[in-house]
Amino acid sequence: MASIFSNRDSRKSDGALFARTARYAIEKNHGQFTLQLAQSRILIGLYYFAAGDATQAWDYGGAGVRVTTGLKMNLEQAIGQMEHDTPLDYGFNRQALEECYRRTFWCAFITDRFNGYATGLLCILQKEDIFLRLPCDDHRYEQQLQTEAPHFDNGIIDKRLVNPLAHATKGFMAYLITLATIWNDMLAEAYRLKHQASEDYAEAYERRYQKTYSRLESWQRELPPRYRLNVENTIVSVHDGNASMFSSMHCLYHTTGMILNRRVRHTCLPAASIDRNVRKALHHAQQLLSMIQTFHEMPHPEHSSTSHPHQELSGPVLISTPFNGYGIMNVIDITSATGSLDAASFRDTLECWNSALAVLKQVARFWDSAKRQKRTVKKRVQAIVSCVLARGQGKLAWIAGTPLETPFNALDLDLFYSHPSSSLLKTGPNRILAAALGMKADESQILFLEDEDLRRSSLDGGGMGAMHDLRFTVPT
Questions:
Q1: Between β-strands 338-340 and 397-400, what pairing exists: parallel, antiparallel or unpaired?
Q2: Is the pLDDT of residue 225 over 80?
Q3: Where are the alpha helices (DSSP H) in 263-342?
Q4: Which end of the chain is flanked by fewer CB atoms within 10 Å, N or C?
Q5: Taking a C-beta distance cutoff of 8 angstroms, is the pair 150, 117 a contact?
């Protein structure tokens, strides 16, 4: 994995060599379940994910999960009953080694949750089978102290073991684990609801919707002040070297909100529910864009021992975790579905998009998935600007007809792109999209961007560079 983040010219060949060596060691230890085998399989799976080999990543990641469950790392009782003659690997004392086992399992858990993103691929680990403490804070781990972190809330365990007020003993990773659980449950239920009978869909969806939002709000309440999303904490995360973890956690929170509100069979829901979903999805998108802009506009601290090794950049790379790329693509997907063509408003939108592209460019230095996302997002921004320059004169707004992504291969579950046709402006969700942005327009004042418009782009630079030449007026 270190080769992925290296700035050496030989990093690709080095990575391939190290991966071959790791595969050889893994194969020689096949069937001999150890802590090291679990960690090796998880790490090489992550390496293949970074390199763009999704099949290998899925295979090795799943194999790592099987080792953790084979060693019963999902059970606190099993970890606590390790034989006293068990070798104390890595120079740990027994308390630190037990925490290392826990953290290895939770790494497998998070990998299992994120490997498939929103593809509908099933996770191996079920939360109901996990009876384990959450990771403790890093200081306690580094000092090799006994953990006092609460148990993971799997919905079954004795609630007296789940203490939501034990912030002092819960590490940053613990909050990410809880949120990743909500994320995966939301995706799994969205996938299952795809097959729900139409007459039962509205009630089932509303039940799932309220339950998920209740869990998200509970998660927000339990966050200690230092982990909450605001400008001050964002700055602190950069100077402490935690920007990637901090941004990933809040990116996951807002992406969960975006997808929960967006991926819905709108033909089965009342107009009030559709209106609510559109507004909340846009709210989460704007909140995430705001965070991204904060990171992008923040003065970079001077290079130090905690700075990123890529010295050719103007400052240290702040964001290097792959989920940020996925979240950014979803933000652009939602905010490019429709928008105002008021000149000032459109310029502000493009500024936000270009900040997102700049951060996505950072992530794309390391992760193949982000490279593809960057190309997709850049092409979308260029296509919209190109169409606005060519045909935007006298228009109040645009509406796009093609999403950047279609999870579950089901366009009918996309609230923002379900009705690209102009003839449905007054009756479909597009009417509500326009209303949510405060636009009162008839079809003649809307710039409709169909598939062909979004596939081509005549702008080489794209983004804000093209906006300096923008000269058009909109009716008042």
A1: antiparallel
A2: yes
A3: 271-297, 322-335
A4: C
A5: no
pLDDT at residue 330, rounded to an integer: 94
Confidence of residue 83 (pLDDT cuts 50, 70, 90): low
Write out the two tokens for 153. Answer: 């809330």
CA neighbor of 242 nearest in space, from 184, 149, 326, 175 = 175
Average pLDDT, the chain: 83
Strand 446-449 relative to strand 338-340: parallel, antiparallel, unpaired? unpaired
- Would you call 143 helix, strand, or coil by DSSP? coil
What are the residues facing 338 on neighbouring strands? 399
SS3 137: coil
Q: Which helix (H) or strand (E) holds 358?
A: helix 343-364
Task: Read off the tokens for 40.
Answer: 């090796």
Helix runs in 52-159, H state only: 54-70, 76-80, 94-114, 138-142
CA distances 392 to 207, 341, 398, 457, 458, Å, are 42, 8, 8, 15, 15
Q: What is the DSSP string of 95-119?
A: HHHHHHHHHHHHHHHHHHHHTTTTS
User: Judging by beta carbons within 10 Å of its beta carbon (0-12, 13-18, 19+), is residue 444 exposed, middle or buried?
Assistant: exposed
Q: Which two tokens stand for residue 231?
A: 């400008």
pLDDT tens string 30-43: 888 999 999 999 99
Q: Match 């961007």 to its residue by tokens.
A: 449
Confidence of residue 450 (pLDDT cuts 50, 70, 90): confident
User: What whole-number distance in Å separates Cα of residue 216 and Cα of residue 50?
Assistant: 29
- Measure the CA–CA gap between 277 and 209, rounded to whole angstroms: 10
What pLDDT digit, counting tens, does each position of 344-396 carry?
A: 999 999 999 999 999 999 999 999 999 999 999 999 999 999 999 998 888 88
CA angle at 141 for the pair 158 and 125, rounded to the nearest 5°: 50
> Can you spell out the DSSP letters for 6-71?
--STTHHHHHHHHHHHHHHHHHHTTT---HHHHHHHHHHHHHHHHHT-HHHHHHHHHHHHHHHHHT
- Strand, coil or helix: 274: helix
| Alpha-carbon gap, residue 67 to 70, rounded angstroms | 5
User: DSSP characters for 376-405?
Assistant: HHHHHHHHHHHHHHHH-TT-SEEEE---S-
Paired with 400 in beta bridges are 449
194 touches 413 (CB < 8 A): yes
- Give the largest CA-CA distance in the chain: 80
Residue 346's H or E segment, with its range, is helix 343-364
CA dihedral 180, 185, 187, 188 (to 10 degrees): 140
Residues 6+ apart with CB under 8 A from 211: none
DSSP 8-state secondary structure symbol assigned to residue 74:
T
Question: What gap in Å lies between CA 314 and CA 329, rounded to an integer?
Answer: 24
Reading the block at residue 67, the tokens are 């080792």
Residue 441 token pair: 């327009």
